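Why do we care about 3D structure at all? Because function follows from shape, and shape follows, mostly, from sequence. That is the central idea of this module. The next example makes it concrete: a single protein chain, its amino acid sequence, and then its structure expressed as tokens.
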Amino acid sequence: MRRFAGTFFCLILLVATFCPTVSHSQSLADAARQNRQQKTQDGSITSKVIDSDELSAPSDDPIVRLTPGATSSGGGTLIAPGLGKHSYLSTSLDTTQFPNGGVLHIAITLGEGPSEASFDLFPQGAHLPDKGIPNPLANAHGVKTGTTAKIDYRFDHGAIFRLAAEGSWSAKAGDTNSYSFVAWVGNR
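And the structure:
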């Protein structure tokens, strides 16, 4: 065994000596670090730190973190986009505290504004369409003014979902309404 290890080490040393690209290669981490620390024209070093929030949800979505045994809430004002179009207001729902999955429950109450509403649940990173029929994981469409709708979605492991809200296609383009929601995760 020692003889094999010694031979293997000598072989590696020989390759490194005659193949400079092997011994002088730059790791991906080194390249990223060097990229982040490039000097600007005024000589200062710029640096960008990416945290887990930036990786886990789109930066323009508010994030609602769901935790075991608790409910979380959110809401906003939706706008009717016009027939066949989309104008989503989205909120990220973080269920990563549930590594073994569960059922995501969302109770949505629509205000008294002129627009009815549609709510779609998408996976993280999904492109929200700007026209046509969406393909969500779950939805509540045609929600009437002043009523409450419910979305239930079973998931296998903790993830981040996007709750997308918009006014109804049957409403006049530009009509608005407010909504609020309460979300929680139940057992499978």
